[in-house]
Amino acid sequence: MTKHAPTLTAALADAELLYSHAELESTIAHLGREIDAVLDGECAVFLTVMQGALIFAGQLALAIRTDLEFDYVHATRYRGETKGSELHWLREPGVSLEGRTVLLVDDILDEGHTLKAVRDDCLSRGARRVLVATLCTKRHDRLVEGIASDFNGVELPDRYVFGYGMDYHEQGRNLPAIYALK
Ligand SMILES: O=P(O)(O)OC[C@H]1O[C@H](OP(=O)(O)OP(=O)(O)O)[C@H](O)[C@@H]1O
Ligand code: HPA
């Protein structure tokens, strides 16, 4: 939790439940079937963007029947705040992406800076194609050009959200639902 951050209890008391655990589980199961159809038997590199994607990635991987090779990157631009800034790379991919299909997995497509940078990095490492899977996408007109999710679970209003991997000042990542600040 960042210094002087408001508490999770206070945030929850003034938050709206957007998607329940049950809704998200069934959404993720459906995403798994869509991804299987597109992979068509090809073993992709399942590249999780830590840390927010941790919970979604675990559930999504179990919903995909096609064999996968796991790897992860750690890139962050919010760093416990509710507004993003410059992207910091804390871990680059560990396996070779040359000629591979990469399934890039993240919790949220918000302004798109993070996924665009990670996707471009995968392509510069020789990935044959990069498919993007997100649990949620925020609706607003600030999305950077040239990035979109190929497999998205749910849509969000233009408000700060937390839970299901996403943090409120580094709190609340393990809440089993998605909440929005009012
Ligand atoms: O579309 P954008 O506006 O770039 O925002 C999306 C990114 O922001 C969050 O990461 P964050 O930087 O908060 O790091 P975290 O995953 O450790 O929470 C989230 O996990 C995405 O990776
Ligand atoms: O609304 C958000 N909540 C949590 N993490 C985020 N990263 C980008 N946008 C958000």
UniProtKB/TrEMBL annotation:
Keywords: Glycosyltransferase, Transferase. The keyword Transferase applies. Residues 18-167 form the Phosphoribosyltransferase domain. One of its GO terms (biological process) is IMP salvage. It catalyses: IMP + diphosphate = hypoxanthine + 5-phospho-alpha-D-ribose 1-diphosphate; GMP + diphosphate = guanine + 5-phospho-alpha-D-ribose 1-diphosphate. Its EC number is 2.4.2.8. CDD domains: PRTases_typeI (cd06223). GO terms for molecular function: guanine phosphoribosyltransferase activity; hypoxanthine phosphoribosyltransferase activity; magnesium ion binding. GO terms for cellular component: cytosol. The keyword RNA-binding does not apply. SUPFAM superfamilies: PRTase-like. It is an enzyme of class 2 (transferase). It holds the Pfam family Pribosyltran. This is Hypoxanthine-guanine phosphoribosyltransferase. The lineage of its organism: Bacteria, Pseudomonadati, Pseudomonadota, Gammaproteobacteria, Lysobacterales.
